[in-house]
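name: query_chain
kind: protein
chains: 1
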Amino acid sequence: MSNASTPIGRILLKNVRLAFASGLHEATIIPGQESGKPKYNCGLILPPDHPQKAQIEAIELAVAKDKWKDKGQAMVTALRKGNKAALHDGDLKPNYDGYPGNFFLSPSLDEAKGPPTRLATIDGQNVQLDAATARKKLYSGCYVNASVELWAQDNQYGQRINAQLRGVQFWRDGESFGGGAGTADANEFDVTEGADASDFV
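structure:
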């Protein structure tokens, strides 16, 4: 539950689908970002009827009004029209699993602030995941709860409303994007000692 000390842009998104999960585990330079600093990042996908969609839009407006005062409403309207607000139409990414017909955020976090998985837990339990377990549990297609903070940018790089990723929590399994079938079991390899290449043809 939020209180008076909670930043106006902060929200805990519940039961959203994770995409581009590799960005949670390794910081990279995101194409198109002028700073060139390595960042952790991911995609957070939510359906049109997600109960927090309206809340995200309300927070976009709140941070816009905080930044641009009486021009806030006009600014957020223009930013949404130019696809420069935090919440995006998934139909803009028709070639990516899970995006068409939905909405998404693409939050990021500077590498210097540490991986967002440092706060990762499972199913609401306050048991922090180690790096290896986080890589296994947080995969593209699973569902997570994610803490993000929206903020208004107005500098030499332009005007927009960005999303900062603060932390993630595995919530439940989902169908893996890309049709990943998991790793093979040792029993699948019926190979005896001394086998050579001719045994596999």
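note: The first strand starts at residue 10 and ends at 19.
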